[in-house]
């Protein structure tokens, strides 16, 4: 038997070993990545507008319209936003809250989300409403608006999401994106207002791993 015939099986086997070795290393790498805590999505507030904004000493009425950009910074992890609530607050008092349709962000994917919230005459004595705005809060907001034509609000979201890595790993998380101290100016007499700085603003995104 010639020397070339002795070495031929080794030469033929080497590419196969290389392929299997590469796949094994890739699986190990993906497995290690799946054990690392996923990065929180980047949430950016682009715009905030109010219409039909009206405050009296007993009621609050307004339509809120926000546009956000949300992107997934993860290289190997998809994110499914299962349940989303968006809210507007004055100091620590939630004024309005609304649901957002669930959606999925793929690897390095970005999406624009529009959040619309309406508050129609919420009254402290009307317990049928889910949200109750205290009279002292309404009085303070009305006073601020009279003084300089502006009121400071905060936007917060409550998000229940699932991260998925490949086909084998999932991780449930709770997130609370926040954009604080948004100064909104109002035009006199017509109930229209907008975010004075005009944005955009990156929101902080606290994340809790279940």
From TrEMBL:
GO terms for cellular component: plasma membrane. Its main location: membrane. It comes from the Eukaryota. InterPro entries: NDR1-like. It comes from Prunus avium (Cherry). This is Uncharacterized protein LOC110759135. One of its GO terms (biological process) is defense response to other organism. It is found in: Membrane. Keywords: Membrane. The keyword Membrane applies.
